[in-house]
């Protein structure tokens, strides 16, 4: 049995890799194919009457580790200099403002049609408002450099802002002056922790000559994240700052302290670390979506009671996106299509306390919105690719 499981897992990873390398050609988001693959494995397992252990508890763990690695992978792609600050500020605002607008708009609809408190409605609405960097960043590989950088910044910031807002709403029964004071204190504390931990980890990476050093760094990063989570600190800020520091250490070499890192030599280590992080992120991301597809029920995908809600939420997502892109004078195509929902949506949905869950926002609705957003992105990227081909044809 164990041999069969190992063979099956190896085949699934290889199929996921095939999906990943062909995504730029087919324009089909890998998330759709991975979900279908997971569901197909379930059908085969049920047909063969194979005994399977309960897999539901693994999903949140995989999702959280995947989120950490994906945000870190994205941060390691972001190069900073003073000329990019306006660009970064714009991407931050375009990550934050739609989250706030969508969260309160969708929460208002939940509150109106469901017998629930507005706070519970808001807890269920936030997962739908967050762009999934796990899908957006890999899908942006087909875009030009500027649009790819924008999607990476925006989706990474969207994950961070979404998690911070979600935790703020779900972890505070009453929101008042004291709550805001505590929130500001948590932000300041994580910034201090990020500064100290980033320097220590960077020094460790630069000075350790043992042949194994990147795996312990990733483990320490995950450890810091989960310990911070215990104390309700927004730990994704640390992940983002750590990745930005590693990728942009050469921008600080004019300062005497940072010369100790020997930026020329350090950049080689960062490149190796970036490659390893990408490999880990791929494995965890693929495993997460395959497992989620495995746990899907056909009745959840084809739930007629939620399809109207799913279409309405999806339309609202892209309407808000188009409006904000216009307000910030950014090109609608192809950016308007780059608003997928995925890992972060699932992860936040699974994190909603049972006492705060509402009937409308169920698993079926989450699945349908994810699939619809992925289909819109797929169609948009295909049309964009066709337009570029036509322009290039003499």
From TrEMBL:
TM region(s), chain numbering: 6-23, 30-52, 58-80, 92-113, 125-143, 150-170, 182-205, 217-246, 280-296, 308-328, 334-352, 364-382
Topology class, membrane: Multi-pass membrane protein
Location of the protein in the cell: Cell membrane
Molecular functions per Gene Ontology: antiporter activity
Lineage: Bacteria, Pseudomonadati, Bacteroidota, Cytophagia, Cytophagales
Main location: membrane
Entry-linked InterPro entries: Na+/solute_symporter_sf
Domain of life (superkingdom): Bacteria
GO cellular component annotations of the record: plasma membrane
GO annotation (BP), single: monoatomic ion transport
KW Ligase (keyword) present: no
Keyword hit for Transmembrane helix: yes
Keywords noted in UniProt: Antiport, Ion transport, Membrane, Transmembrane, Transmembrane helix, Transport
Name under which the protein is recorded: Sodium/proton antiporter, CPA1 family
């Amino acid at each position: 049995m164990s041999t069969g499981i190992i063979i099956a897992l190896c085949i699934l990873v290889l199929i996921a890799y095939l999906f990943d390398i062909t995504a730029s050609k087919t324009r089909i988001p890998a998330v759709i194919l991975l979900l279908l693959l997971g569901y197909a494995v379930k059908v085969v397992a049920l047909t063969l009457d194979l005994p399977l252990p309960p897999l539901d508890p693994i999903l949140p763990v995989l999702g959280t580790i995947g989120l950490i690695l994906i945000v870190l992978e994205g941060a390691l792609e972001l190069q900073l200099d003073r000329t990019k600050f306006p660009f970064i500020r714009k991407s931050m605002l375009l990550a934050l403002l739609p989250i706030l607008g969508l969260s309160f708009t969708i929460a208002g609809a939940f509150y109106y049609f469901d017998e629930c408190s507005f706070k519970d409605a808001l807890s269920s609405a936030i997962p739908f408002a967050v762009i999934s960097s796990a899908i957006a960043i890999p899908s942006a590989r087909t875009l030009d450099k500027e649009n790819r950088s924008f999607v990476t910044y925006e989706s990474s910031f969207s994950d961070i802002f979404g998690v911070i807002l979600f935790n703020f709403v779900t972890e505070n029964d009453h929101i008042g002056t004291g709550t805001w004071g505590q929130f500001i204190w948590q932000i300041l504390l994580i910034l201090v922790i990020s500064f100290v931990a980033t320097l220590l980890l960077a020094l460790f990476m630069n000075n350790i000559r043992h042949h194994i050093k990147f795996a312990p760094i990733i483990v320490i990063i995950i450890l810091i994240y989960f310990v911070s989570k215990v104390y309700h600190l927004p730990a994704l800020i640390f992940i983002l700052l750590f990745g930005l520091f590693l990728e942009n250490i050469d921008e600080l070499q004019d300062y005497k302290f940072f010369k100790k890192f020997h930026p020329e030599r350090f950049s080689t280590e960062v490149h190796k670390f970036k490659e390893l992080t990408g490999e880990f992120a791929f494995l965890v991301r693929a495993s997460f979506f395959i497992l989620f597809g495995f746990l899907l029920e056909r009745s959840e995908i084809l739930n007629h009671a939620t399809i109207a809600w799913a279409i309405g939420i999806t339309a609202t997502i892209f309407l808000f996106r188009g409006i904000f892109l216009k307000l910030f004078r950014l090109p609608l195509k192809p950016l308007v299509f780059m608003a997928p929902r995925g890992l972060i949506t699932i992860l936040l949905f699974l994190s909603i306390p049972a006492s705060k869950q509402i009937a409308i926002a169920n698993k079926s609705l989450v699945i349908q919105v994810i699939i619809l957003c992925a289909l819109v992105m797929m169609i948009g990227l295909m049309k964009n690719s066709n337009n570029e081909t036509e322009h290039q044809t003499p």
